[in-house]
């Protein structure tokens, strides 16, 4: 499924937003590692990131979108879920062991990342893998038991920015989230100039919370109500 939206009213050129495929995953994984290096997953390498991203293609509530120009030039991607709690539950039920062994293999050859993981994340990850918690940290800020739709990652190539690709990716995600009856959409971005807060505020997202990530980075959480 794809959507086409006018990008430049003067030239009549079009931007195409389509569902990502497995053939897109290598490029998406590379771009995430390069442009969104914060957090644990980018430090586990391209092979792990690709396998993790694939869950957004295979699981029912996952969303993976790619933006391309009318000439077929890749511009960026978005991954997220229309129901974060159910998506995480599905991933744990169907992909837990594949991701676990892939993650352990990545950590085994990255001793500094392994030490950082043991210090910052080992206990909550172990609880989740053992099924002792089903709550996703980002969804806890919504103030209700209803799971939000969550934008996990959004990347637009630097050479393609200010062309409207980011807005189109977000709009398509919100359409899918609304169709899935999500009450609101949620995301987290790094605070300050390194984050994308101004971009989301221009799209009428509302900042509702700030917190420090497990790595000590100040992040802002944003909401966009859908119904």
UniProtKB/TrEMBL annotation:
Alphabetized UniProt keyword annotations: Transferase
Pfam families recorded: Acetyltransf_10
Domain N-acetyltransferase: 15-227
N-terminal signal peptide: none
GO molecular function list: acyltransferase activity, transferring groups other than amino-acyl groups
Full protein name: GNAT family N-acetyltransferase
Organism: Glutamicibacter soli
């Amino acid at each position: 499924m794809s959507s086409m939206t006018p990008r430049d009213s003067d030239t009549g050129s079009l931007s195409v937003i389509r569902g990502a495929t497995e053939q897109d995953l290598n490029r998406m994984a590379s771009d995430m590692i390069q442009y969104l290096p914060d957090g644990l997953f980018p430090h586990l390498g391209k092979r792990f990131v690709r396998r993790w991203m694939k869950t957004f293609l295979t699981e029912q509530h996952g969303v993976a979108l790619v933006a391309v120009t009318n000439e077929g030039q890749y511009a960026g991607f978005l991954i997220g879920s229309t129901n974060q709690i159910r998506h995480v539950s599905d991933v744990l039920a169907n992909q837990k062991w594949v991701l676990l062994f892939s993650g352990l293999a990545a950590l085994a050859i990255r001793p500094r990342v392994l030490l950082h993981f043991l210090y910052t994340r080992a206990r909550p990850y172990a609880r989740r893998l053992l099924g002792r918690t089903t709550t996703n940290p980002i969804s806890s800020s919504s103030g209700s038991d209803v799971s939000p739709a969550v934008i996990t990652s959004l990347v637009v190539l630097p050479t393609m920015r200010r062309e409207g690709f980011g807005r189109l990716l977000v709009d398509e995600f919100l359409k899918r989230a609304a169709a899935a009856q999500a009450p609101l959409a949620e995301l987290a971005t790094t605070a300050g100039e390194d984050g994308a807060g101004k971009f989301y505020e221009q799209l009428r997202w509302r900042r509702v919370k700030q917190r420090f990530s497990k790595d000590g980075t100040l992040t802002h959480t944003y909401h966009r109500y859908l119904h």
